[in-house]
Design goal:
single chain, about 130 residues, alpha+beta, Cytidine Deaminase, domain 2, 5-stranded mixed beta sheet, 4 helices, globular, binds tetrahydrodeoxyuridine
């Protein structure tokens, strides 16, 4: 996996962020096991809670195009700090694999975690067993 390329794709997606309210741009690039990359940016809304994060945009694009198996996601933002994915995005991403590698960039350096580290004791639905 070319980490630099993934971060670069996240940065170019970040430039499309629609951040009328927070002015805080986020970009994400999601790498599938087959090598495809899906990008996303945050898209805000005047009804604030209708805002969608960059990570979930990347995932919804990928899932809706038939991708299911993911290796890594790179996440960047317009500040010079490391910004970690929000709780909703952690839960959303965990649906598709808790071993996902999460690469966070502050524009200079990167940090890497597994999603499992960022979302310990993740919720999963336990299907009732037939008795
Ligand atoms: N945001 C993301 O895109 N990803 C996150 O994981 C955290 C927050 C966006 C949502 C909103 O547009 C802005 O950052 C400020 O919260």
């Amino acid at each position: 996996m070319d980490k630099g390329e993934l971060v670069a794709k996240a940065i170019s997606a970040m430039n499309n962020a629609y951040v009328k309210y927070s002015k805080f741009k986020v970009g994400a690039a999601l790498l599938t096991k087959s090598g495809k990359i899906y990008t996303g940016c945050n898209i805000e809304n005047s009804s604030y809670s209708a805002t969608i994060c960059a990570e979930r945009v990347a995932f919804t694009k990928a899932i809706s195009e038939g991708a299911r198996d993911f290796l890594a996601i790179a996440i960047v933002n317009s500040s010079s700090e490391f910004a970690y994915p929000c709780g909703i995005c952690r839960q959303f991403m965990s649906e598709f694999g808790i071993d996902l590698k999460v690469i966070i960039s502050n524009g200079k350096e990167t940090k890497e975690h597994s999603l499992k580290e960022l979302l310990p004791y993740a919720f999963t639905e336990f299907m009732p067993t037939d008795e």
